[in-house]
């Protein structure tokens, strides 16, 4: 079955899911944010088949989320590093992590938690805010078509 593509839709969520909508892509970005740069490290951490990892890395490079560069240790290998576009996905991953922590773990069940590297304290829960700083609820937000 051919996968539906959403390149022409007005919906930024649908367009985003064209690129990062499978779990492997977001897990690759998660690992890259944690400092993973080498193909073998991604493969070992994720347990993903080499052909699938190759395809996902190619897509992420083609879409400008990752870029390749010569290995920092001077070896013949290449490294995958996040671009600004890729680093900006951190907020998406933080939101998913916080949602999962709240809704997918039993009370007392061990789970990883994101912490501020400076204070070592958990991150404040993300919230939607209006331009004037008010916290918004789902009923306070509506969709409209805008020219960007």
From TrEMBL:
GO molecular function, one term: DNA binding
Highest taxon above the source species: Bacteria
Matches recorded under Pfam families: HxlR
Matching PROSITE patterns: HTH_HXLR
SUPFAM superfamilies in the record: Winged helix' DNA-binding domain (SSF46785)
Gene3D superfamilies (alphabetical): Winged helix-like DNA-binding domain superfamily/Winged helix DNA-binding domain (1.10.10.10)
Keywords linked to the UniProt accession: DNA-binding, Transcription, Transcription regulation
Name recorded for this polypeptide: Transcriptional regulator
HTH hxlR-type domain segment(s): 11-108
UniProt source species: Kosakonia quasisacchari
């Amino acid at each position: 079955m051919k996968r539906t593509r959403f390149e022409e839709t007005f919906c930024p969520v649908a367009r985003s899911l064209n690129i990062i909508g499978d779990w492997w892509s977001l897990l690759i970005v998660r690992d890259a944010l944690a400092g993973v740069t080498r193909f073998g490290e991604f493969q070992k951490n994720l347990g993903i088949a080499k052909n699938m990892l190759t395809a996902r890395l190619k897509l992420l490079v083609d879409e400008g989320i990752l870029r390749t560069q010569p290995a920092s240790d001077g070896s013949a290998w290449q490294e995958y590093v996040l671009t600004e576009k890729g680093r900006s996905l951190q907020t998406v991953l933080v939101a998913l992590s916080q949602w999962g922590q709240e809704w997918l773990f039993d009370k007392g069940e061990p789970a990883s938690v994101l912490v501020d590297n400076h204070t070592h304290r958990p991150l404040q829960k993300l919230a939607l805010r209006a331009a004037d700083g008010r916290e918004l609820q789902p009923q306070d937000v509506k969709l409209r078509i805008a020219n960007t």
